[in-house]
Amino acid sequence: xxxxxxxxxxxxxxxxxxxxxxxxxxxxxxxxxxxxxxxxxxxxxxxxxxxxxxxxxxxxxxxxxxxxxxxxxxxxxxxxxxxxxxxxxxxxxxxxxxxxxxxxxxxxxxxxxxxxxxxxxxxxxxxxxxxxxxxxxxxxxxxxxxxxxxxxxxxxxxxxxxxxxxxxxxxxxxxxxxxxxxxxxxxxxxxxxxxxxxxxxxxxxxxxxxxxxxxxxxxxxxxxxxxxxxxxxxxxxxxxxxxxxxxxxxxxxxxxxxxxxxxxxxxxxxxxxxxxxxxxxxxxxxxxxxxxxxxxxxxxxxxxxxxxxxxxxxxxxxxxxxxxxxxxxxxxxxxxxxxxxxxxxxxxxxxxxxxxxxxxxxxxxxxxxxxxxxxxxxxxxxxxxxxxxxxxxxxxxxxxxxxxxxxxxxxxxxxxxxxxxxxxxxxxxxxxxxxxxxxxxxxxxxxxxxxxxxxxxxxxxxxxxxxxxxxxxxxxxxxxxxxxxxxxxxxxxxxxxxxxxxxxxxxxxxxxxxxxxxxxxxxxxxxxxxxxxxxxxxxxxxxxxxxxxxxxxxxxxxxxxxxxxxxxxxxx
Length: 572
Fold this sequence. Notes:
Elements: H1 2-21, H2 25-30, H3 34-44, H4 51-54, H5 58-69, H6 71-81, H7 89-95, H8 111-117, E1 126-129, E2 135-136, E3 140-147, E4 152-158, H9 162-183, H10 191-205, H11 208-221, E5 228-229, E6 242-246, E7 251-252, H12 263-284, E8 286-288, E9 296-298, E10 304-306, E11 312-314, H13 317-331, H14 335-346, H15 355-367, H16 379-391, H17 399-418, H18 424-427, H19 429-440, H20 442-475, H21 488-522, H22 526-571
Parallel strand pairs: 5-10
Antiparallel strand pairs: 1-3, 2-3, 3-4, 4-6, 7-9, 8-11, 9-10
């Protein structure tokens, strides 16, 4: 435990040092790390960043800092490159450069990893393993190998001690997210929730059996389509740390010389690839989320093999129906339908956003598609632009929808690169029509009516019992009323102030009554008379002070109210 704490402290100093060196000193001070920054600056003798670094744009500097901080931060940048709903386009574009070019480890560094993965002996499973990696990523690297039976395979091997490194880095990221949440306003997203989402993604990716199961599922989806396939997983040689899959045949699309292909060949590649992605995203709902040219092989027979199924997404039927409503609402010039679908997808607090302003922007976007036939709508591009619009109003797009949009726009980019003349939008027509049919067909409407009827029936069955329970609690005086009050501290202070003034008022009243009794009883002479007069003067002084304090408290309250309203207006 102590060793872990020491390592965490060292890691924290490294993170602060790297961020400071790349010019993020002011940010570190803003989130409350001024003392740590001062210590690092004094030790390392660095200023506000080296001159050459400071001339670089901020996204570039942050990308370079992530590269230096290692696998966890590289992976964070890769994830953020797909989340254009969270970060501006120029940042996402810069972070996308983290997708490749990760340094590889020498084979000697991963031999122990293989020995732990296969305790019965590596030689019992593999005839040979090529020591030179064929690819390297932030979490793992790939090696060519031959099984005992002579089958050539690809081994995807996790980097040694990657989980331990991730645990320490995630603690640092959680702490940093809490500081950002506390000290920085208008971030545009929930830093702590985003970090937790990232932690789940890392946990999933560091268990390579998840990728194996995803690959098997995608394979089963295309069992009847000979033009599309995925690697075969060799489960007897697969563990949490090692994924063993068949070697793809053919040529990687990224390495293919397009100029050597005929127009028919190019059109076939695009048609097969786009059809595969549209089937996954718009029909099934489970999809390969990163179909870029580096993950697609062109087979000798003209078919396609999709590899690297570690990044997958899933959207349920309801989500795909909401997407259909968005596209349909745009073609029908119905911004209200579009907004209802978006709000249902985003699951946001309506009190926290300016619905009127968001609707105005959506209306402007929708107006651009009036009169355009549904089969001429670029669904990926429309959805991407639409959710970019929502991001400006703090309407956060669900992560899975972001992945779906990424898959659609990625394959669109591939299509434009391979065959710019291919009518991709027209190609999507049957998929969009099927999606819309699933939402608006008589059968679908009848199904929703049945579901609504079942819910009403369930409500009718449960309501009497709930009402009886409510009345019983009321009779027993066990009802609890919970109020969510904004600025509860102000309310408590106000109540305390009011109770204090009531107490003073009662004291003054008692003093006045006592003074009046003394004056009346003294008949205008003696010490009792003078005490009564003194009591009246004291009461008047207290009353004046009480009125002054009340006036001052009201001024403070009005001032705070105006400030709160201004703050709300700025946020809106």
